[in-house]
Specification:
The protein has two helices and six strands; from the N terminus they run αββββαββ. By secondary structure, it is α+β, with helices and mostly antiparallel strands. The protein has one domain: OB fold (Dihydrolipoamide Acetyltransferase, E2P) (Beta Barrel). Strands 1, 2, 3, 4, 5 and 6 form a six-stranded antiparallel beta sheet that branches. Strand 2 and strand 3 form a beta hairpin. It starts with a helix and ends with a strand. Keywords: Signal.
Length: 125
């Protein structure tokens, strides 16, 4: 009986720990609609559209700020320089890109524009 209780407790704690972080939400084959850089805190704001021209937006963390359908590329969450380079290349070449919207992090940089926006964690070109 004690072994069963310990086994059940360990199983439940493993399940709880594995569900503590949700999977990121990927926006696949989207185009960079707008890219804004130069903020003192080092973040970027970016919006995406589908190949058909409609806005592509996802908010898996239910972040509070969603105006303009902009995402933040937050230096407190990811390497801004690498993602900026990829997004700029995709925009310039008019190529599609796939981005992971972080399911566990809202923007923490840029009180005026970036804070509490859905955060981009990774990008694929």
């Amino acid at each position: 009986m004690v072994r069963f209780f310990i086994y059940a407790l360990l199983s439940l704690s493993f399940i709880a720990a594995s569900n503590a972080y949700s999977a990121d939400k990927w926006l696949v084959n989207v185009k960079v609609a707008e890219l804004s850089a130069g903020y003192k805190e080092g973040y970027l704001l970016v919006s995406f559209e589908t190949e058909g021209g409609s806005s592509a937006f996802s908010n898996p963390k239910n972040c509070g700020r969603t105006s303009g359908n902009f995402f933040i590329v937050d230096p407190n969450n990811t390497n801004v320089d690498y993602i900026y380079s990829m997004l700029l290349a995709a925009k310039t070449a008019q190529r599609t890109v796939s981005v992971a919207v972080d399911a566990n992090h809202c923007g923490t940089s840029g009180y005026e524009h970036g804070q509490s926006r859905p955060s981009i964690a990774r990008a694929k070109l």
